[in-house]
Known about the structure:
The chain is α+β, with helices and mostly antiparallel strands. It has two domains: 18-149; 166-232, no CATH class. The protein is built from seven helices and six strands; from the N terminus they run ααααααββββββα. The chain has helices at residues 18-31, 38-51, 62-86, 91-103, 131-136, 138-149, 228-232, and strands spanning 166-170, 175-181, 184-189, 202-206, 211-214, 220-221. The strands form two sheets. It has a four-stranded antiparallel beta sheet with strand order 1-4-5-6, with no helix packed on it. Strands 2-3 form a two-stranded antiparallel sheet. Mean pLDDT is 90; it is low at 1-9. The structure holds zinc ion.
Amino acid sequence: MGSDSGPGAPAVDAPPGVGRTVDAARRLLASGEWRPAESDADAAAGVRTRLTARLPDRAGTSVLAATDRDRRLQRILRTTLHHLDGGALSPPATALLAAVARAFRPWHPFPNPPRAAAAPRYPGSTSTPPTAAGEALLGPLADLFGTLAAPLPPGTVPLTPRAEPWAVVHEGRFRHYGRPSPSVWTADTFACPACGGRSGPWTVRCDWRAFTLGCACGTVTGDHGLAFSEVWLVLDGAD
Ligand SMILES: [Zn+2]
């Protein structure tokens, strides 16, 4: 992303990184510009449960404790993706959960990666997860998601601010995953409906409700069948 700056490259705006998105959400909630609708609050409550989960008490078993720490972070990612791809969120909530999903993306394969060869693989993977860095996010995010999940003050109605659209250029493939049973994954690579191209470069535009993919041949489509995370987690450089 951002590397396609040659002649004729489309103008693009980087999507906000994690810190910016979390700060913006905090400001909007504090000022009352964002009073979350029920669907946002429900999703926030689900993620907050994972953020505040206690580790099991395994005195004297340090190896298991390390796995427990990563499992907690992995569950945050999985629950966040569940709500993100459920499609019931407002644009600012989508932006926030998308940012959280990227922050916890390193735990996609830790401690237990999906076994199937067709399962998702995301960029930015490391051989060991940055566990302490992930845990440093727990407290601040739990506070933020607690605010999001709290009941609205009496006499107020939900209010949703706009979320800033973005566009990026991405070279590479987008894959749509199916999961017919718990350890079985299927994957199809998205192809341009006009030229059949699969590798881009794609111009990805997103208004936090949906996104479109623009092919190098000039075709732009929103009818791609890709879940939010299937595009968002593949992009580089939005952190
Ligand atoms: Zn095309």
